[in-house]
């Protein structure tokens, strides 16, 4: 199993798919990385030799922010929105959809389980 940027990428998949297991690299980025490293995207990960893997590593380390730094920058961007109190930040703070979706009937993933309006009666 090849290890790139601290992530074990699967052997049986094509390298263009295997690279997407790294946080911060999608399908388009994976194809650009392979084009820069001059590697066929249709190759299986298990068929790569050490030179090809090292060339992929160098291309990724020079041109892309991945894994921990990408996650950190993502969290810091959301925190900045919440601190300045913009509309998107308020939506993040309240746990509501941020990108304009309707919330009257939908968005259960974001809002959580339904809360009932009727409270239980207290015993006297």
Fraction of helical residues: 40-55%
* Strand composition percent: under 5%
What is the overall silhouette? elongated
- What is the name of the CATH class of the largest domain? Mainly Alpha
Radius of gyration: 22 Å
- Estimate nothing, just give the exact number of structural domains: 2
CA-to-CA gap between the ends? Answer: 66 Å
Structural class: mainly alpha
Instruction: Please tally the helical runs, counting DSSP H or I stretches of 4 or more residues.
Output: 6
Q: How many individual β-strands?
A: 2
Biggest sheet: strand arrangement = 1-2
Write the element-wise H/E pattern from the N-terminal end onward. EEHHHHHH
Q: Provide mean pLDDT, rounded.
A: 90
Assign the CATH topology of the largest domain. Helicase, Ruva Protein, domain 3
Q: Which second-level CATH architecture of the largest domain applies?
A: Orthogonal Bundle
Return residue spans where pLDDT drops below 50 for at least 5 consecutive residues: none
Main sheet: strands, sense, barrel: 2 strands, antiparallel
Description of the structure:
By secondary structure, this protein is mainly alpha-helical. It folds into two domains: 2-64, Orthogonal Bundle (Helicase, Ruva Protein, domain 3); 67-98, no CATH class. The chain is 47% helix and 5% strand. It has helices at 15-18, 27-36, 50-63, 67-84, 87-94, 108-111, and strands at residues 2-4, 7-9. A two-stranded antiparallel ribbon has the order 1-2.
């Amino acid at each position: 199993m090849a290890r790139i940027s601290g992530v074990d990428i699967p052997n049986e998949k094509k390298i263009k798919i295997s690279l997407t297991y790294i946080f911060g690299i999608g399908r388009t980025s994976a194809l650009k990385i392979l084009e820069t490293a001059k590697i066929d995207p249709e190759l299986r990960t298990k068929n790569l030799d050490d030179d090809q893997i090292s060339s992929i590593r160098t291309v990724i380390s020079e041109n892309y922010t991945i894994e921990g730094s990408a996650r950190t920058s993502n969290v810091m961007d959301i925190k900045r929105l919440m601190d300045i109190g913009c509309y998107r930040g308020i939506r993040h703070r309240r746990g509501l959809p941020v990108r304009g979706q309707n919330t009257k009937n939908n968005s259960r993933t974001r809002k959580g389980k339904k809360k009932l309006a009727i409270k239980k009666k207290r015993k006297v």
